[in-house]
Specification:
Elements lengths: L4 E3 L2 E3 L14 H61 L4 H22 L8 H25 L12
Antiparallel strand pairs: 1-2
Length: 158
């Protein structure tokens, strides 16, 4: 094990080396991502069924595409935040806010780019993006409040 380092007059004990790879996620991040993906996918399936009965095949295609877009944008953002929090925990909140702003701007860009498309129902597409985004954020809050995250290090110094 490495020697402890002195930072601002305190001894900082480094973590012991592990076999964890660069792509490994923390268990809480996995639970958070899984819960959000499951809830958003369920909401997307419900939206797709409703869209099929309301607008036919084009509505179904719009709802499915919107769900995939939301899942991709927010899952990639969650993976990035998880990686940043593992490598540099002090920057986590700044990067989480930056990532969220970028995701919302990119969703707005996608809505703008597909506003005049004939491939699918754009109203269903927009409403499904809105609904799936709200479900993603609500599920993140719901799952996060149920995680058992230690906010005090059990072996830490006073």
């Amino acid at each position: 094990m490495r020697r402890p380092e002195r930072v601002l007059g305190r001894l900082i004990h480094p973590l012991p080396p592990t076999d964890a790879g660069v792509t490994d996620m923390q268990a809480n991040d996995v639970r958070l991502l899984r819960g959000s993906v499951v809830c958003t996918t369920a909401a997307g399936v419900i939206a797709a069924i409703a869209a099929f009965f309301a607008a036919g095949g084009k509505g179904l295609l719009g709802a499915v595409f919107a769900t995939v877009v939301v899942l991709a944008f927010f899952a990639i953002g969650q993976l990035a935040i998880g990686r940043i929090s593992r490598n540099n925990p002090l920057m986590m909140m700044n990067m989480a806010l930056f990532t969220y702003i970028v995701q919302i701007l990119l969703l707005g860009l996608v809505l703008f780019l597909f506003k005049d498309t004939e491939a699918f129902d754009t109203k269903v597409f927009g409403l499904t993006i809105l609904g799936a985004t709200l479900v993603w954020v609500a599920s993140q809050v719901w799952v996060f409040t149920r995680l058992k995250i230690a906010y005090v290090e059990p072996d830490g110094e006073r």
